[in-house]
């Protein structure tokens, strides 16, 4: 006869929580044998974070917020590394499976802010001193302008023979 500390009386039991399970077995002679097993539930839970947007031409490293030992990583892009670097808009998912076959899944959508893509000062050209130079097709929402001569305005008046470079920033993207 079987008697578990879970009040079950079958030769085997199904468990779903961490616990020290004890069984006593009474044979036909009335001798009792005891045995126990400590069950630990390994649940590789993690979070990839909330959906996010990155700047055009930037990289984002995706990794779980929890470090694991003795697990297999399986990303939706076929990588088996613990983290991946992405730079394209997509839904990325990760499944972590431990040595017991327990697994957990999470996903994150990465979008790209490409609002600054294609901004140009126009083709290289010769301009006269006193002419203005600025973006050929400016967009709204630009937070800062930084010219190679140190000025910080949407356009500049040329004052010398030089190559002019403009860096713009919009919502953290450069």
Give the distance, in angstroms, between the N- and C-terminal Cα atoms.
74 Å
Number of helices: 0
Give me the Rg, rounded: 31 Å
- Find the structural class using helix and strand composition: mainly beta
**Mass-distribution shape:** rod-shaped
Strand content: 35-45%
Going across the major beta sheet, what is the strand order?
A: 4-9-8-6
**Mean residue pLDDT:** 90
Main beta sheet strand tally, sense and closure: 4 strands, mixed
The number of E-state strands comes to 13
List low-pLDDT spans. Answer: none
Keywords summarizing the entry:
174 residues, 13 strands, 0% helix, mainly beta, four-stranded mixed sheet
Tell me what the structure shows.
This protein has strands spanning 2-4, 19-26, 32-39, 52-55, 60-63, 71-75, 83-86, 90-98, 103-113, 132-134, 144-147, 155-157, 166-169. The strands form five sheets. The chain has a four-stranded mixed sheet with strand order 4-9-8-6, with no helix packed on it. The protein is built from no helices and 13 strands. The model has no long low-confidence stretch (mean pLDDT 90). The chain is rod-shaped and about 110 Å long. With 174 residues, the protein is an all-beta fold.
Summary, kept brief:
With 174 residues, the protein is mainly β.
Task: Record the SSE blueprint.
Elements: E1 2-4, E2 19-26, E3 32-39, E4 52-55, E5 60-63, E6 71-75, E7 83-86, E8 90-98, E9 103-113, E10 132-134, E11 144-147, E12 155-157, E13 166-169
